[in-house]
Amino acid sequence: MAAKSGVALVADPSPEAAGKKKKYYRKNVEFFKLLEKIKLWPSRSGMLHGIKSIKITGDIAEVVTHCDEKFIVWNSRTSRAARWLRNKWCVCACKKCKIPAWKLEKYTSTMMTQKWGSNL
Fold first, then answer.
1. What's the pLDDT at 103?
2. Bridge partners, residue 112, by sequence
């Protein structure tokens, strides 16, 4: 056998390449775990808000956004907010919350699949 004189492949260490890596999460994961991981809240008008804090007590949670809005949320996988987060139906980001561009890019590159991905 002949010896191979190959070139070592090195991954691109630039931040642009790191941001394009896709994350995979399960589609039917518990809603509160998804909120704690993503830290984004979709409002009914189609805006994404950044979550400042989540206080979970049983099946109910109190969500406080960066623009000081408070919501009482039930733990439902089929709720409007859960579907909007999974399917990425939000139109724009809230200007008061000042969500960083890297967080929005990471959210848009995240894939929610039925049979593949992390259970959070």
1. 93
2. 25
Q: Is 50 helix (H, G, I), strand (E, B) or coil?
A: strand
Pair type for strands 40-42 and 60-65: unpaired
The CA-based dihedral angle spanning residues 48, 71, 84, 95, taken in that order and rounded to the nearest 10 degrees: -10
Distance between CA atoms of residues 12 and 17, nearest Å:
6
Closest CA to 52 of 120, 1, 99: 99
- How does pLDDT run across 4-62, given as a tens digit for each residue? 444 443 444 444 554 567 878 888 888 999 999 999 999 999 999 999 999 999 999 99
pTM for the whole structure: 0.75
Check if the beta carbon of residue 118 is closer than 8 Å to that of residue 25: yes
Measured at the CA of 72, the angle between CA 54 and CA 36, to 5 degrees, comes to: 25
- The 10 Å Cβ neighbour count of residue 41 is 26
